[in-house]
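TA notes, week 10

Several of you asked for a full example with nothing omitted. So below is the full record: structure tokens for the whole chain, then the designed sequence directly under it. When grading your own attempts, check the secondary structure regions first.
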């Protein structure tokens, strides 16, 4: 006569089955919860002159202040007039979260600053700042054409040679750049393995219970 099956085995089998089912149902919620929120790129916090400013006295410098320290990797500032003519393209001085550059004497006109820097997370960011000069810089016997012919305001060709960081960023697929860190992937794999172990134990207990029957 077969020995009576211990009374605790059905209860343990039921408990393990419930745990396995709960873990399986929670998997779609648990894995996304492990992923960190994607950090936003740095942004332009303020500028001097500010975007949309209308000033009487032409500014002599441009200061761009960002939400975090930016990397000093090939920053570029380009100044255009209202006709779209390029006045200059220069490399600003980057100090912590500020990029600064000297401006030439500017006559009354509408101007557009186009800037490009590398964010603290390694991604290039860019934008524009527009301002208006209503009177313009004082001229000492020279008209606006003299200002344009001044070597200090001559157009400078931007350095189009890609840097090592730009090449690496361009060669890296977009999916790679936005993919989660390795630690998060390993955490998800670990969770899947743990769930697999629970399922395996559940199946093994069921097999033993069937054999006992």
């Amino acid at each position: 006569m077969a020995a009576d099956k211990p009374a605790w085995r059905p209860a343990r089998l039921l408990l393990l089955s419930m745990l396995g089912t709960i873990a399986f149902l929670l998997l779609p919620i648990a894995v996304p919860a492990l992923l960190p929120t994607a950090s936003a790129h740095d942004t332009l916090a303020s500028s001097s002159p500010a975007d949309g400013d209308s000033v009487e006295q032409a500014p002599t410098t441009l200061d761009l202040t960002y939400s975090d320290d930016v990397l000093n990797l090939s920053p570029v500032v380009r100044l255009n007039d209202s006709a779209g003519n390029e006045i200059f393209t220069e490399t600003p001085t980057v100090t912590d979260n500020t990029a600064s550059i000297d401006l030439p004497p500017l006559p009354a006109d509408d101007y557009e600053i186009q800037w490009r820097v590398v964010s603290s997370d390694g991604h290039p960011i860019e934008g524009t700042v527009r301002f208006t000069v209503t009177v313009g810089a004082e001229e000492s016997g020279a008209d606006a054409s003299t200002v344009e012919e001044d070597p200090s305001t001559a157009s400078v060709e931007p350095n189009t040679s890609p840097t090592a960081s730009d090449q690496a960023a361009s060669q890296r697929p977009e999916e790679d750049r936005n993919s989660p860190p390795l630690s998060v992937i390993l955490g998800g794999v670990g969770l899947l393995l743990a769930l697999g172990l629970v399922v395996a134990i559940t199946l093994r207990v069921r097999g033993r219970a069937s054999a006992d029957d």
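The CA atoms of residues 38 and 178 lie 8 Å apart. Use that as a sanity check on your answer.
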